[in-house]
Write a structure and sequence with these properties.
The chain has 544 residues and is α/β, with parallel strands linked by helices. The chain has 10 helices and 24 strands. The protein is globular, with a radius of gyration of 24 Å.
């Protein structure tokens, strides 16, 4: 029966589809002691085989997690309006694509006839790291009739540790989505138990900056409507003015740092797409707990400016007393457009007159804004307009705004997602932002969705744009994309390690050799990418 059963190992650089034979193969790898290392064990059978089991042996077995790669239905594959000539996708047609990583019973596995199945292997030692040395993992697949196949994977764990990220990296958590999916009271004890599983997941995958909801973030909300209140700052409104209680905010920040975040980004002080209004702000008043600002509040109204003046003065004092001046960022409004320049200028002048040198970062793409923001975070498709003009800028991506650009859509090849880490180093970026860690809603938050069946925000965004984790009863389920983005950020940290030894120029020379020029121009061949990584590590005597 063995000649009718194929078993092999593949790297994480390729996504495995049911009816497509893997084009790459990988039998060994190298990683740093504190790395999160991914590869795949894949098999294909000519027969339907039930009651199979997969066994894992070797010194790294206790550190290895196996998850089954499952397909999800994709309708809106990518942005045809913008990228009609973009062919660096797995398929432009709707269909089933691999994405969910689900725990499974290793003793009850089914091999379906003429279909490729992938078991995703993650080797991770947590804070203590992996044991140093060369290790061989042995995977054996059996069924009641005997052994079907056996395959080995050798992993060399280096006696070295990856440095921390040198830039901010944020993937926005949507706190109301967690509360609504799990039916929990926001920021209750039960809520934090669940939330912390998501926060730990984010940190383990390279996210080091946490969006912190001072007030309910004014993001992806239809004008005139409200999202569930997720407000950390307690506000009292009296005839004498405003009073603020930062107890919940303080606990939230302490919790974030304990989990492993390095930076806090305070939620936006004005509404999305131009800053015309205030976010929803709730307060204790003589009439009870009620909304005092929102869509009906002009962002430059005297009443709101009076509120912000009082609030920001207290917040700045809190930041300084807590000693996190170098660990926090402020936001004004998300994605202002050219027409919003004068408005943004006014908002910036007012806020900066209070917060002083504390930095503002905002997602925007118009060059004229660059002197108004301490760190403009630029749509990746517009980076070329900032290079050479702006000394410090970050990047973000969303619906896909340029051909072949790195992104994390479900239909994107793994290489297209993973190359982000190298590109962040190339520019170099001061930070990276993504808007959707767990946005399980339709566009403008009109309705909640089931992400296992709807992954395009109700047809608004290409599948995979709005989240990288799936909800379950406990800890979230990863997507392949979450792991591949993590691989990319570990590549970035490897570059920092190498740069410390040999300098930046030698790395850039190798980038040029392999055609890595910008977010759009790089080799689209998986073997070229792995060869580039190997050459980079050889600069410091590491044989990959």
């Amino acid at each position: 029966m063995n000649d009718r059963f194929i078993l092999k190992t593949v790297g994480s650089i390729e996504k495995i589809r049911k009816y497509v034979e893997p084009k790459t193969s990988e039998k060994r790898g190298v990683c740093f002691a504190n790395a999160r290392y991914n590869f795949q064990v894949v098999f294909c059978s000519k027969d339907r085989l039930r009651n199979c089991k997969i066994e894992i042996a070797g010194t790294l077995a206790p550190y290895a997690t196996l998850r089954l790669v499952e397909d999800v239905p994709v309708k809106y594959t990518y942005n045809f309006d913008v990228n009609g000539d973009d062919d660096f996708v797995m398929d432009k047609n709707a269909g089933l694509f691999p994405d969910v990583l689900r725990p499974f019973n290793r003793n009850d596995l089914t091999a379906y006839p003429d279909q490729w199945t992938s078991c995703w292997v993650t080797v991770f030692g947590g804070e203590n790291g992996l044991p140093v040395g060369e290790h061989t993992l042995v995977f054996t697949v059996k069924n009641p009739d005997g052994e079907l196949g056996k395959v080995e994977y050798t992993l060399q764990v280096l006696d070295a540790r990856l440095p921390k990220m040198s830039i901010f990296n944020t993937n926005w958590v949507h706190y109301d989505c967690i509360a609504e999916w799990y039916r929990l009271e926001v920021f209750s004890k039960e809520y934090y138990k669940v939330l912390n599983e998501y926060l730990k997941n984010a940190v383990e995958h390279g996210v080091n900056t946490l969006l912190t909801p001072l007030f309910t973030p004014p993001l992806d909300t239809q004008v005139g409507t409200e999202r569930l209140t997720v407000q950390l700052v307690e506000v009292d409104k009296t005839d004498k003015g405003y009073a603020f209680d930062f107890t919940k905010l303080n606990e939230f920040i302490d919790n974030a740092f304990t989990i492993g975040f390095q930076y806090i980004e305070f939620s936006h002080l004005y509404t999305q797409w131009g800053g015309l209004h205030s976010p929803k702000i709730m307060a204790n008043t003589k009439n009870g707990y009620e909304r005092i600002f929102g869509w009906d509040t002009d962002s430059e109204s005297a009443e709101y400016k009076t509120f912000l003046q009082a609030f920001l003065e207290k917040l700045v004092a809190f930041v300084k007393e807590k000693g996190i001046e170098k660990n926090c960022y402020f936001h004004l409004t998300d994605e202002p457009q050219e027409k919003d320049f004068e408005k943004y200028t006014a908002l910036r002048m007012f806020v900066k007159s209070i917060i002083g040198d504390l930095p503002v970062i905002d997602a925007l793409s118009e060059v004229q804004f660059m002197e108004l923001v301490d760190i403009p975070v630029v749509d990746s498709g517009c980076l070329k307009h900032f290079v050479g003009k702006c000394t410090k800028f970050g990047a973000y991506y969303f619906c896909g705004t340029s051909k072949n650009a790195t992104n994390r859509f479900i239909v994107h090849p793994a290489l297209r997602t993973r190359v982000l880490g190298y590109q962040a180093y190339l520019y170099p970026l001061a930070g990276f932002l993504h808007w959707g860690f767990n946005f399980w809603k339709t566009e403008l938050s009109k309705h909640n969705i089931d992400p296992y069946f709807v992954n395009d925000a109700g047809g608004a965004f290409p599948a995979g744009d709005s989240f990288t984790v799936y909800p379950t009863q406990g800890a979230p389920l990863d997507s392949i994309r979450n792991e591949i983005v993590s691989d990319g950020w570990q590549d970035y940290r490897e570059l920092l390690f190498v740069e410390q030894k040999v300098g930046r120029e030698k790395i850039l020379e190798l980038f040029a050799k392999y055609g890595l020029k910008n977010v759009n121009e790089y080799s689209l061949v998986e073997d070229d990418y792995t060869a580039l990584r190997a050459e980079i590590l050889r600069l410091v005597g590491i044989d990959a």
